[in-house]
Specification:
Layout (H helix, E strand, L loop, with lengths): L1 H15 L6 H14 L3 H13 L4 H7 L6 H12 L38 H16 L2 E5 L9 H30 L22 H14 L5 E2 H23 L2 H16 L10 H12 L14 H18 L1 E3 L11 E3 L1 E8 L2 E8 L1 H10 L3 E5 L10 E5 L2 E3 L16 H8 L2 H15 L2 E4 L1 H11 L31 H33 L5 E2 L2 E3 L5 E3 L10 H5 L1 E3 L3 E2 L4 H13 L7 H10 L1 H9 L14 H15 L8 E2 L10 H9 L3 H6 L11 H18 L3 H5 L6 H11 L5 H14 L6
InterPro entries: DNA-dir_Rpol_C_phage-type, DNA-dir_Rpol_phage-type, DNA/RNA_pol_sf, RNA_POL_N_sf, RPOL_N
GO molecular function, one term: mitochondrial promoter sequence-specific DNA binding
GO cellular component, one term: mitochondrial DNA-directed RNA polymerase complex
Length: 752
């Protein structure tokens, strides 16, 4: 009754200022009326007003989203006035009419959707594991460094940290409650919405847990204040969305639908002639009553996320302290803050940073803790993703994921996507679903070799970052920095910069390898979304198949296929492509070369770290090693054609932007230069451009142009490659000049 009074009051206010209520407002009003069994007269008046404003009763059920039993209550209210009213039938599915895809969406040519090599029961178990992971919001795992023996120093540091964290927990808990009690309930003095309601959404324990997590992951170099605040605000938002989905009944609905949906993908499932999106939409339409599968709009503005994060960071900075003498008993035992808010300059901008105290960073380093905590959305999915059916629904079960990535705070993309007729998005949604339904597994032998090198001080040549302890030390005399020369100060600065870079690379590799190790015995999936250009990306950020050489080498398709009569030959050609040794040779010459070096290939596969190590001197060493192992297994098989291979072959366009231009313009010369036309040897547009630039340089040099004379011997394929590639994507003359400057600086002999 109270809610009905409030809504009625709002309606009256809107009417007085000549504002027209939207459809959702009428749905909320009728839901209250159904709940309280309001009189016929009041409901009739509401329905009449709704009609005057251009809305029909059917619109309520076709365009509004509902939670819990709201839909039933709206229907109950309508039937008080119109007892015979029936729910409108689900809209008939629309067929995409894109002129590029007439056959794909033609019902006459519809083929069965390919089945995964899993039973319904197995996929249901996978779903339950994924759901549990998302309900926990975070996942804690052992890092790959956990195998190292513990030193007495590490044991002592961990005990100290445990004691401090226990104290910090109670301090933050009290500070959070105190800050909330001092907060205005509606608006701040500056007119901003009060943060009070956003600090009451979760149990206090959860806010404290989110804040303490920051201390475990903060880099010694610090982190941008805005980035950190946005991250904290997002964590609160994500947990709130999870709670909403649980309490609104939306999760229960998704569970029911997913249970039927997996029959489309499972090898023992019945339905066939549907795409994942079509089958999901069909199941949603048949589900009828109950909450909607989409959650009612609950996006928080970017600035709100940042303000909320800033407030939590402020509590952390003011509350979390430790004794100065924690590592050196000779110092006085006064309490000092763990975190500092400092300013730095990025170009001409002043940037706020949150930086940990060096003593705290040293304590963390000595403790060498081996547990890592990730958001559940950072881990590959343990079941096939929820298919994309709209810009707001797809990918994870509970974690909110947007169809399109965009810069923080930008909303116009999402608005445009939501205004776009759904049928126009079908090809995009179906493409993302197809990518997401590909199952993966770990190449365990390669992962184990990489982890062993990672834990043995790394190897920069093989792209395994060494630990920061291997960073170069400045050769400056002990004493005050004021006594150092200018060159010594510069050397110290360079060493600090190198150490920061090494820390960043090491942590990135640690995350990738630890996640890979966590899923080493599991089958997993990568849900995908896209950027504004339509380029697709896996949603889990750290470990995915678009990663570097190391990451690609440890991934295999979960489902294998027989190599077939020519499969082994193609694997050998792929191996030679990975080495980068025969870029200008024909495919046949590459195959012959592979057969010539078969001894090296088998030696690399059998003795990767103790043999001749041929694989280490290639462009993509880890993928080369993985391919050597696959060729060894296939060639030793009694019938290589029948060998079941799980090996992914990554392929790339040659300057794909120019390929599009050549195809659109039917440009024969352009098409030949970017391999769109059959050719006995691979064409290389970058070399062709470099050759033309060199010819122009010679002419200028002959005419006495000084720069052209200095550039003799420095015009190369590598020099022009980046600019040729990016000119297609709108690089400016200024940007191109910077690219050139960077390439020249990378050349050791080039005169400064």
């Amino acid at each position: 009754q109270g809610r009905l009074k409030r809504i009625s009051h709002l309606f009256a206010m809107m009417h007085s200022v000549k504002l027209q209520p939207n459809l959702e407002s009428y749905a909320a009003m009728l839901e209250c009326m159904g709940h309280t069994s309001e009189s016929v007269k009041v409901i009739w008046s509401c329905l009449q007003q709704m009609k005057i404003n251009g809305f029909e009763m059917d619109d309520l059920f076709q365009k509004c989203l509902f939670e819990e039993d709201e839909k039933e209550n709206v229907l109950k209210a309508i039937r008080i006035v119109h007892p015979d009213y029936q729910l409108p039938p689900p809209p008939s599915p629309q067929i995409c009419k894109s002129s590029l895809l007439p056959d794909f969406y033609s019902k006459e040519r519809m083929v069965s959707y390919p089945k995964l090599d899993f039973s319904v029961q197995e996929l249901q178990e996978c779903f339950q594991q994924q759901l549990q992971m998302e309900l926990n919001n975070t996942i804690t795992m052992e890092s790959v460094e956990a195998t190292k023996p513990l030193t007495p120093q590490a044991i002592k540091a961990r005990k100290v940290l445990d004691t401090l964290r226990s104290q910090w927990h109670s301090s933050i808990f009290q500070a959070l409650r105190k800050s909330r009690s001092n907060m205005p309930k509606l608006k701040t003095m500056s007119g901003h919405i009060s943060l009070y309601p956003y600090l009451c959404l979760l149990p206090d324990e959860e806010y404290v847990g989110i804040m303490l997590q920051v201390l475990n992951t903060l880099s010694p170099q610090g982190e941008s204040l805005t980035v950190l605040a946005r991250e904290l605000g997002s964590k609160v938002y994500n947990r709130y969305v999870t709670q909403r989905k649980l309490h609104s009944g939306q999760l229960e609905k998704v569970q029911e639908i997913y249970k039927d949906y997996i029959h489309l993908l499972a090898k023992d499932g019945k339905p066939g002639e549907f795409l994942p999106r079509e089958y999901w939409e069909k199941l949603v339409a048949e589900a009828g009553f109950g909450p909607s599968v989409n959650l009612k709009g609950c996006d928080w503005p970017y600035m709100l996320l940042v303000r909320l994060g800033m407030h939590l960071l402020e509590i952390l900075v003011k509350t979390v302290k430790f004794p100065r003498n924690i590592l050196n008993p000779r110092l006085e035992p006064s309490l000092i803050p763990v975190l500092y808010h400092i300013y730095s300059f990025s170009s001409t901008w002043q940037v706020g940073l949150i930086k940990p105290h060096p003593i705290f960073s040293q304590l963390m380093s000595e403790a060498a803790e081996t547990l890592l905590t990730f958001n559940s959305s950072s881990i590959p999915m343990l079941c096939p993703p929820v298919p994309w059916t709209s810009p707001n629904l797809g990918a994870f079960i509970l974690n909110d994921t947007k169809l399109m990535r965009f810069v923080d705070g930008a909303m116009q993309h999402q608005v445009l996507l939501e205004q776009c007729p759904p049928v126009n998005l079908h090809p995009v949604l179906d493409a993302l679903n197809q990518l997401g339904n590909c199952a993966w597994k770990i190449n365990q032998p390669v992962l184990d070799i990489i982890i062993s090198i990672f834990n043995d001080k790394g190897n920069e040549k093989l792209d395994i970052p060494p630990p920061v302890s291997e960073a170069p030390k400045p050769s400056v005399p002990p004493g005050s920095p004021s006594t150092w020369t200018k060159s010594q100060k510069h050397e110290v600065l360079l060493c600090k910069k190198k150490a920061a870079e090494m820390h960043s690379l090491r942590v990135d590799a640690l995350y990738k390898l630890s996640i890979a190790n966590y899923v080493r015995d599991k089958i997993f999936w990568f849900p995908h979304n896209m950027d504004f250009r339509g380029r697709t990306y896996p949603c889990p950020p750290y470990f995915n198949h678009l990663g570097n050489d190391v990451t690609r080498a440890i991934l295999l398709f979960a489902e294998g296929r027989p190599l077939g009569p020519k499969g082994l030959d193609w694997l050998k050609i792929h191996l030679v492509n990975l080495t980068g040794l025969k870029k200008k040779n024909t495919l046949q010459e590459r195959l012959e070369y592979a057969n010539e070096i078969m001894e090296d290939i088998l030696d690399s596969a059998d003795h990767p770290l103790t043999g001749r190590k041929w694989w280490m001197d290639t462009d993509e060493p880890w993928q080369t090693l993985a391919c050597c192992m696959e060729i060894a297994k296939a060639s030793r098989c009694p019938d290589p054609a029948a060998y079941i291979s799980h090996f992914p072959v990554h392929q790339d366009g040659s300057c794909n932007g120019l390929q599009h231009y050549a195809a659109l313009g039917r440009d024969l010369i352009g098409a030949i230069s970017v391999n769109l036309m059959p050719c006995s040897v691979p064409q290389d547009v970058y070399s062709a451009v470099a050759q033309q630039v060199e010819e122009l340089r010679k002419k200028d040099a002959e005419q006495g142009v000084k720069i052209a004379q200095v550039l003799q011997g420095y015009i190369s394929r590598e020099g022009v490659k980046q600019t040729v590639m990016t000119v297609v994507y709108g690089v400016t003359r200024y940007g191109g000049r910077l690219q050139m400057e960077k390439r020249l600086k990378e050349m050791d002999e080039f005169p400064e």
